[in-house]
């Protein structure tokens, strides 16, 4: 039975139709919240949340958060997860990427202030740029090229942290900042250009696997359920400084490609393509803070997470081949 009484917590999740946003909607519905999902569907897909449409605990607002945001009624929490988040996407729509991180964040901070809502932003490991410190802890300020191809994303996210902290300091707004490291799982877009969906798509379709550079660059991949748990715990905590959430299990991109070839049981070969400009050479979260403050650490191994994700992508590829 649904509880539509006034004590029910109400949460606004922007980027609700995206990979992370849609998993967050599921989680907060499960926790008994009234969830308002907002998205302009530029990179998100209704398919990720269509299972929620019949629920009266869920509402969907088709809206671009860079324009004034109006939500009637009370709001207890706002999670700002709207943004293109893959290098291919933010190269295609650089201005929107800058706007959603800056103007969008400003609008939502105004809304949070008006509603006295707790405000959590999705920041990113990208704010560390091509890091000179390894693994990256929250005290590191980063090494970002502001005018490089990734600058539109990295600087928007850095601005987002700055303005969020300013609202906390000057307006006493209750804020949280999470720095998300590479995350994967069902509902990632097959064509978003990221390594993981690219490799799965290529392996399943019987194409060569495209590794950029010599594949010696590293990443550390976190399964989406672990990330969502970290976000939930941070939101419920009283900690206002940035917290890294990610899986420290680091791997080179070449080894990662080989892992996916083995898992999919294909014998695709790896072909090497030029490394994109400013592609970080290494990335691994230092999660000491998350462990100490949130009692959080990832639980899902890459082997388990990749198996679940493979099943998802197999279905997506067969669906797209039929239609
Ligand atoms: N990458 C690759 N082949 C691809 C797509 C990406 O080798 O088809 C590389 C990319 O250059 C980067 C790593 O894989 O070094 C992770 O890329 P992704 O876009 O997934 O995430 P990000 O660079 O934002 O961490």
Could you characterize the architecture of this molecule?
It is a single chain. By secondary structure, the chain is an alpha/beta fold. It has one domain: 3-Layer(aba) Sandwich (Rossmann fold). It contains 10 helices and 13 strands. The strands form 4 sheets. A 7-stranded parallel sheet has the order 3-2-1-4-5-6-11, with helices on both faces. β5, α5 and β6 form a beta-alpha-beta unit. α4 runs parallel beside α5 and α6 packs parallel to α8. Uridine-5'-diphosphate (UDP) binds next to α6 and β8.
Condensed summary:
38% of the residues lie in helices and 17% in strands. It is an alpha/beta fold. The protein has a single domain (3-322), classed as NAD(P)-binding Rossmann-like Domain (Rossmann fold, 3-Layer(aba) Sandwich), CATH 3.40.50.720.
Question: End-to-end span in angstroms?
Answer: 37 Å
What ligands can be seen in this structure?
uridine-5'-diphosphate
Helix tally?
Answer: 10
- State the CATH architecture: 3-Layer(aba) Sandwich
CATH topology name, in short, is: Rossmann fold
Taking pLDDT < 50 over at least 5 consecutive residues as the criterion, the unreliable ranges are: none
Q: Sheet bearing the most strands, described?
A: 7 strands, parallel
Number of strands: 13
What are the defining features of this structure?
17% strand; alpha/beta; 7-stranded parallel beta sheet; Rossmann fold; binds uridine-5'-diphosphate; 323 residues
